[in-house]
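Problem 3 from the worked examples.
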Amino acid sequence: MYPENNFASAHGRARRHRIVFAVLFGCVGVTVFILSQCSVSGLRKGTAAAHSPIDVDGTSISNIYRNLWGSQFQGYNCINERWNHQTKMYKNTFLCSTKNSYVWGLSKKGNLVWKDLSTGERRMYYENIYNHQANYFWLTLDGKFQIIGDNGEVLWQKKPGNYNDIGYHQCLAKFACPYLHLHPDGVIVLNWIDAATGSWITKNINKLYGI
């Protein structure tokens, strides 16, 4: 056999090998693409639907959102254990304790309520007995509790005792004072910085607001 025939034969075999490799590589690529699309689709239809982020005052908070289905918090939209001032807490939104089974927030009926889900004990902070169209709860910059109606009216308000100097301070990296914190033992406190001394102040909201 002539050398060029050997070259042609070898070249033919190499070409066939390249074709087979390309086909195999293409199949692998298609398979990976299909699997990735299935995963994305599954997330969109499954986990993402059940754990979709809540929009708080126009800002996505998916990084701190917890919807704990299949646990003691089933049915409660849990958003961290802290709540910043001037952030709207819409109905069926709750602070949830990282330990034990405590929740505090605005129910579907527009009640501001604390619950121990392990015992059924509950404490009502605001009861919507007149079926007002409560839109959201928020903590004002000067420490007031307010329930705001659909038309922007203040349906209910509580002042923080005799403290008149509560104001803005960047006291934590992700939370500016004043802010609320639900502790693992179920106690909810208001945190702020004393304007005169710069001291950190923590007060149980039951005593602070006389509830």
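Problem 4, a separate protein:
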Amino acid sequence: MKKLLQEIDEGLERSEALLSGGEVFSGVLGRAEIANISLELPESVRRSVESRCDVRRLSEEAIRSAVSGIRETSARIRRILSVGSRWNDDEWLLIFTLRINICVLTRYLHQRLSKNDTDVLDVRELDGTIRGAAGLRGNRKPFESALRCLQKNALPTGCSRELIERWKGSHAHGKGS
């Protein structure tokens, strides 16, 4: 536990350095990832970490930058899936990672989103695009390979656990291997 807390401290320091250095999206994502991990910690430790990651400590500029980054990340996934009809396991792993980042950020920011920004919370179309692509001929094996890699290497926390379970059945209704 001591090593984990040290890693959390280091992660928060990196996040603050990114925020201070103008890399706002990466800094907010770092905080959001730590807040996500903290959900798995014992309550006494979780409260301490959550207070240090408190979304209310972010500036309006940081919130706007994070929301813009979420939109850009969604667009990036759509661009990847708009080129061709078969993707290799590395491309699927990138798509999964980007989608998990969106999940982590939207959960972290949900309290601070303005009414104009709540569209970033609705990812049904994006998830439908991912599911549809997974079901296209030739994608089953690379999709499953990337999913196994993600399961093996991702922290089993809220967003990754939830999305892995959702993706396990994504290719089941596809049009072949």
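Solution to problem 4. Residues 144 and 168 are 8 Å apart (CA to CA). The radius of gyration is 17 Å.
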